[in-house]
Each structure stands twice: as structure tokens, then as C-alpha cells.
């Protein structure tokens, strides 16, 4: 099983992991998939220019940026940024340069618009 320790991920170990399609321009490596009422933990790899449309958080979401810059309507988040999106919050996400983030969702999000 590939190593997903904090030290490995911070040192670029995510580059050796297998990712699968998540949505156009974004791939995912599941560390812990969602199970019933259990949170999901994953790595998301955004290609340059990729985005996720406006969505609502149905539970707490936390993000730690491992590589590149992730952006939303509230700012740009570079390597080492820790972002907390509270339940009920809404935003869209993109990466002009491409990025890799460690993400934990309490619950899946609800996509509000595909634009």
C-alpha cells in the first residue's frame, strides 16, 4: 500500500500514488472513501485551469495545499495553506497553475451550478 503519511505527502510522495477520474481536469486518490456517515479523506490533483463549480458544503470540509495554488472567490491558497469551509458555506474552486490538496469532507458537497 502506498505511503500517505504526513512526511511523505509533504515531500512529494503524492507523485507516486495512483489517481482516478473525479471530474474534468481533477483526479482523486482516496485515502479513506466515504462510508455511510463517515467522512472521506482524499488527495485532489487539479490540472492547470481545472475547476469545480459552485457548491454547498453539507458538512465541514478542510483542505491543506500540498502543491501549487488553489483559488476560490475568497482568495488564493498556496503550499502550506489550511482552508476550512464550514457546513452551509458555498463557493467555486479553481487552480490556474494546477495544485494538489489533501481534503477531508464530513459529507459530500451539493453542486449548485455546472457553470
Automatic annotation (TrEMBL):
Signal peptide: none annotated. This is Cupin domain-containing protein. It comes from Peteryoungia desertarenae. Keywords: Plasmid. It holds the Pfam family Cupin_7. Residues 17-103 form the ChrR-like cupin domain. Transmembrane segments: none annotated.
